[in-house]
Amino acid sequence: MHPHDSLSTSCLAAPHAVSRLRAERLARSSKPFLARGGPKGERCPGCRLVPSHCLCGVRPVVPTHAGVCLLMADIEPLKPSNTGWLIADVVPDTFAFGWARTEVAPGLLALLADPQWEPLVVFPGEFAQAERVVTTMSDCAPGGPANAKRPLLVLLDATWPEARKMFRKSPYLNHLPVLSLAPEQVSRYVLRHSRRGDHFCTAEVAALCLELTGDAHAALTLDAYLDVFTHHYLQAKHQLPPQWEGEAHQRLRALARGAEALAVTPTNKVRRYRPS
């Protein structure tokens, strides 16, 4: 029996932050949002895939030292291909807020001011003042100073033009340090295309950052989960069954069993990068 054959419990799991934001966004819509695919556009509420390709049964949850705050462009929570949803699946301390130029959610301001967190905006350093750019997080990793706060990774979940606008027009982020990554490999995410090969999808960026914060197992898990999601999404698009015994699924299962030895082969490593 494949995991999607008995998913009633998994699919009805408590909604996470992105799921709740999606519900709020739908409630404000003046007309229904209809995603393509599936009978009459039917999709699983737990993973946004067509029911035949549901992957709720393999959803991993990994405790992390870091938290993630997703600041999402207006339409992002509604897109079935959005990968911020995958981050919220994996990282328990994930928060999600919609972005608007003229207003800011009070909950976001409260989160950024919460003394348990050390917020960092993840964005290319070339767009920030040099004094704001951070190139190391050693003090935020587990085992650092006793009084170190937990890192809160603020990710701008949007298309590249939207993200640049969000970065420029969010004054409440201006006082925060900017974590700038310089990945050594181009993105493997194939559900959307960018004109620049060094642009990563939101889940890829989160995996890179989680490795920086010392959450290596969560980084590997999110990376594998993104591959599983991409496989299911594309198989459904082409009306092909998912390969439950494929490499991505096997890697995700091994990580769920705590198989640290999996990281010895290049295909099973999180894509490496160097801080800018």
Task: Itemize the secondary structure elements and their pairings.
Elements: H1 8-11, H2 17-28, E1 67-72, H3 84-90, E2 94-98, H4 106-113, E3 117-122, E4 133-134, E5 150-157, H5 160-168, E6 178-179, E7 181-183, H6 202-212, H7 216-237, H8 247-256, E8 273-275
Parallel strand pairs: 1-2, 1-5, 3-5, 3-6, 4-6
Antiparallel strand pairs: 7-8
Give a brief description.
This protein is of the alpha/beta class and 276 residues long. Helices cover 30% and strands 13% of the residues.
Rg from Cα: 18 Å
Number of DSSP E strands: 8
Helix share, percent: 25-40%
How far the N terminus sits from the C terminus, by CA atoms, comes to: 47 Å
Provide mean pLDDT, rounded: 82
Q: What is the N-to-C succession of helices and strands?
A: HHEHEHEEEHEEHHHE
Main beta sheet strand tally, sense and closure: 6 strands, parallel
User: How much β-strand is present in the residues?
Assistant: 5-15%
Q: Shape, please?
A: globular
Give me the secondary-structure category: alpha/beta
Notes on the structure:
There is one protein chain. By secondary structure, the protein is an alpha/beta fold. It has eight helices and eight strands. Strands 2-1-5-3-6-4 form a six-stranded parallel beta sheet, with helices on both faces. Strand 1, helix 3 and strand 2 form a beta-alpha-beta unit. The radius of gyration is 18 Å and the shape is globular. The C terminus is likely disordered.
